[in-house]
Amino acid sequence: MGRPVTDALVEYARPEPGMRVLDLGSGTGEPAITLALRVRPTGKVAALDLHTDLLEIADRRARELGLTNFSAWQADANHLPFATGSFDLVTSRFGVMFFADSALREAWRVLKPGRRACFCAWGPFDQPYWSSTMGIVWKHVGGPLFSPEGPNPFKFGEPGSLSLTLKLAGFEQVEEEPKTLPWTWPGTPEEVWEQARGVSAPFRPLLARVPREKWDEVNREVHAAIRQYVDGDDIKFGARVVFASGRKV
User: Fold this and answer.
1) How far is 226 from 115, CA to CA, in rounded Å?
2) 12 touches 118 (CB < 8 A)
3) What domains does the chain contain, in order, with CATH numbers?
4) So what's the pLDDT on residue 228?
């Protein structure tokens, strides 16, 4: 589902051959792999994540594509293992919402002067994909949507909030732009709901509050909500996201 978002972020970041790029929170490899394709043959991409199991998938995907300019780094974004001024571009797709302020200051530190960092975050919770899945669960169980101390995927859903955070981290020439992009599942409502439950870690406390006897009712209601977005063999939700960038001056 995330391919259009990846492609849009890469275009927004404007990578050029020969660039050294750092992708934060790369997970299974995007947009790092797409960036590596764009900056070769002399450019290099470092894909950084906390989770080695995800990086192993990313590394395998890069090898299958024959990429020799891709490297996976298991590290904390709050303490980057790179020298000051090492990179021409820093990116992150759906990672910045989970970073501490120190991670953005680190991103600023490792950039070369004059270079940009480009981020993609979720917009508001009130949008088709989330409202038809986790929104239904929330309606049934009530309480907080997230653990108060836990990660919040919609931290930058309020317009201007990501821009302000980048400015406070030291970035200048900051820009922010909301976008609505395709978010399409090529399958059934049952499949996309199973996928959503499996990968949406911030919602696990919410899901855990559903009583066992209520799951059949919740599942039926979620499937019905998702069906309104069915278009032929696909489910076309659309995604409201926020792109923002800042420059090290």
Assistant:
1) 41
2) yes
3) 3-247 (3.40.50.150)
4) 97
